[in-house]
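Next up, sample data:
>
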Amino acid sequence: MHIDLADLDFWRKPPKERHEAFAQLRQLEHPVFFPEKKVPFLRSGKGFYALVRHADVVEASRNAKIFSSEPAVTNPEPPGWVKQVFGESMVNMDDPRHARLRRIVTRSFSPRMLANLQADIETACAGIVDDVVKDGPRDFVTQVAARLPIHVICDMLDIPQGWRAKVHQHVDVSTAYTGVRPSLARSVQLAGQNMLALLALQRMVIKLGHERAADPKGDLVSLLVTANPDGEKLNDRELGSFFALLLVAGNETARNTMAHGIKLLTDNPAQRELLMSDFDAHIGNAIEEMVRHVSPIMQFRRTVTEDYSLRGLELKQGDKVVLFYGSANRDETVFPNADAFDITRDAKPHVGFGGPGPHFCLGANLARQEMRTMFRTLLTKLPDIRSVGEPELLVSNFDNSVRSQAFTF
């Protein structure tokens, strides 16, 4: 099989073929190098080594001093002017800058804060399912999976109701652009749309930040623009960058997993029956197995800061590596019969929320909470809900996104 992870044509292949390709790469003695072509408006990367084994992804994730998130974690890397326009996202930072921002925003995802959100999440899930019953089943993504995460984030930030439709629209534009590198004309069009969407999102939250700094309301924006016990708070650019990250990354993990999850439960009726035999006993591990199986974010890039030996591969300072989470999550040495969906397996070593280390997903517990509540509501109110046919997937090397999924009940 010809395999080129740097070519978008590879990511157009059916998921089964991509999984087979990664299985071949995992059998090789050393990580493989993939050269990159020059891409319009992006850095002309030198190429990267593909880390496809679970152990390699975990090693690189834990060793952030060697495997740096700077200058950027997306693949290919955006040009330097992007940071000047949008500010710098915390996912593209190393400590101590990353640690400072994480200290400020971590309090927003404390167990106490998440517990306070539960009633609102339950109300949102009930309303979404009621709308599905009223409107009839059409597309699981737009009617269910895409609605809940953004609804929760907008509630956390107390985004005015009149702004929320625009927030949904801007996030959809950003998702369509992420990881996709088509023709030159389409690249220019998508890049322009993405830039305008991100700028609009940042302007929204910066305006709110000014209002909440003068009159705090107890919401997430108020929390971020008022000082923590160490006297730290986010400035305008940091707040704008965090909002964009929260909406895109915080939305995609739960959205993608739920959209793929309804298909997994439909295609695996014995696993669904087991889940419903004791929902509370099984749902926690079922969510972890869904995230492992789906790998909603498929990869992140790292830059090697000094010479380093990884599984016999001698990496040099400045080399690029890409952590392929979807491949690591199907590593047979960690997950036997990895292609099977099995809610009884020990799925916790998965790297679906990123590998262990300083960049582990800050919103992982919120995503788990959203998915647990939504599946409970769906499977209780609509016990025969099921997907219909195959999903329409976004062509992307980054975001394992479902564009649409027909369903019925």
About this structure: The chain has a mean pLDDT of 88. The CA atoms of residues 207 and 270 lie 50 Å apart. The chain has 16 helices and eleven strands. The two ends are 40 Å apart (CA to CA).
